Amino acid sequence: MGTLDGKVAIVSGSGRGIGREIALKLASEGASVVVNDMDADPAKDTLAAIETAGGRAVSCIGSVTEEGFAERFVQTAVDEFGGLDIIVNNAGYTWDSVIQKMTDEQWDAILDVHLKAPFRILRAAQPVISAAVKRAREAGEPVPCRKVVNISSLAGTGGNAGQANYSAAKAGVLGLTRAMTKEWGRYNVTVNAVAYGMIRTRLTEAPAGGSTIDVQGKEIKIGVNPNLLAAMEQMIPLGRAGTPADAAGAVYLFCIPESDYISGQTLICGGGFNL
Description:
Number of helices: 9
Strand content: 15-25%
Largest sheet: 7 strands, parallel
């Protein structure tokens, strides 16, 4: 028996890294999961890992920034698994530059993926959640506690040089979280955020300057200088950067029944380090 048996979850950006680990964790505890990635192959890999472990999952391929994606993402959960209980807004990437060199395109792209996309997904989910709550109340049945977990960052709580776009977007996620806490409390939905510190993923472990990722045809530079990464780890009280599994564990805490009366909160997952 898993703690999330019978629950249906959607996790954006779950083909790789932190999102993959979140999807695997929720599935391992009994949730049926809609896996998402821009690319089909990473999503298929996550899907296969879940199914091999005995879990249930389907994929929904596409960018969270595409028109109509949010509605398709939510509807996949309804069509395949009959409802929606957990929403994890995780998808994203960084496109860094100091402000005098940052273009409007950089600003808009990061705000779109980190803030506008979660807004759209929550907007698309509202009719589904509202209708389910109405049906339960009319039938005299208890309304289950549903969960939203939005992913933020220490850049959103304290800012980060070279990341005006990312810091602004992740701070906006915290405002969105607090607003939705007050809007959706009447539906018995908790809305919380997890703000990550240094987590080792392909975006941070690649050497700075020489690595890129392809985001809808754009080559985006990624990576952190290894010396800087080592120095940052020395500032973390636990003495190490986090792993994607560590990151997934923080999200899981907000998804279990024991957190049903916790809402509007931001959990720092940073090994004790805080800006």
